[in-house]
Design brief:
alpha+beta; about 15% helix; protein yfey like fold; five-stranded mixed β-sheet
């Protein structure tokens, strides 16, 4: 091959090689974007429901029985003129248990018989007067159809109290310091020491045709010389029949 030929061929080879090089390199690869991971939140726990309020106390006054829950709301209220069947329903709901019912009688005054409904230390006396049945109310303002005697500070976990939160088991000294004390033989247990008592939480009543100064009150009892309240009774009639 002549020199001229070689010189003529070299540019062609250079061009060819450059074309081949470009063909081999090819375009740069464009990266394909991948979708970013979707952020997922962990499921949130369901909020726990607020606890339902529970019955906290039964308060017995000279003219009413009130049931209060743990939030201080009055759940139920009756008085001693309410038909006994309704009072029993309210107390059974409050204490969560049914009472032990014992028929007693005959009783004193003008009542023909009493039935005692006992919730383990909280006794409701259902007084049947002149054949009145348990679904009949008393006659206001004097003729009640029920009364209570309490010998326990609580029943089935429900506190039982009276005026100013006084309960069975409390020290009687504050009451004795503020109200006249009456000491009498223990009529319920004659072989036991005398009982002291005070009358408090008095609810005045209108005079009738024969009597003045009528009222209902709460009585707290304790063994003389010991000073711990053992029994609370209400309503006590004051100045009736005098």
């Amino acid at each position: 091959m002549t020199l001229i030929t070689r010189i003529a061929i070299l540019p062609v080879l250079a061009i060819a090689l450059s074309i081949v090089g470009c063909a081999e390199a090819g375009p740069e690869a464009i990266p394909i974007p991948t979708p970013s991971a979707v952020e997922t939140k962990a499921p949130q726990p369901e909020p726990e429901p607020e606890p339902e309020p529970t019955i906290e106390r039964v308060t017995v006054l000279a003219d009413s029985i009130t049931v209060t829950d743990s939030e201080g709301n009055v759940v139920d209220a009756v008085d001693f003129f309410t038909p006994p069947d309704e009072i029993i329903r309210v107390l059974t709901n409050a204490f969560g248990v049914s009472p032990e019912t014992v028929r007693e009688g005959p009783c004193n005054c003008d009542r023909s018989s009493d039935t005692a409904h006992n919730w383990d230390g909280f006794v409701l006396f259902d007084a049947t007067t002149f054949g009145r049945s348990g679904d009949q109310p008393g006659v206001r303002p004097y003729d009640t159809v029920a009364g209570v005697s309490i010998t326990a500070a609580s029943v089935n976990g429900v506190q039982v109290d009276t005026v100013d939160g006084v309960m069975v088991g409390d020290d009687a000294a504050p009451l004795a310091a503020n109200y006249p004390i009456i000491t009498r033989p223990n009529y319920l247990n004659p072989d036991q020491p005398d009982e002291s008592q005070v009358s408090f939480g008095t609810v005045p009543l209108p005079d009738d045709s024969y009597n003045t100064g009528l009222s209902f009150s709460v009585h707290a009892f304790w063994t003389s010389g010991e000073g711990v309240i053992t029994r609370i009774t209400t309503p006590i009639n004051n100045n009736f029949g005098l």
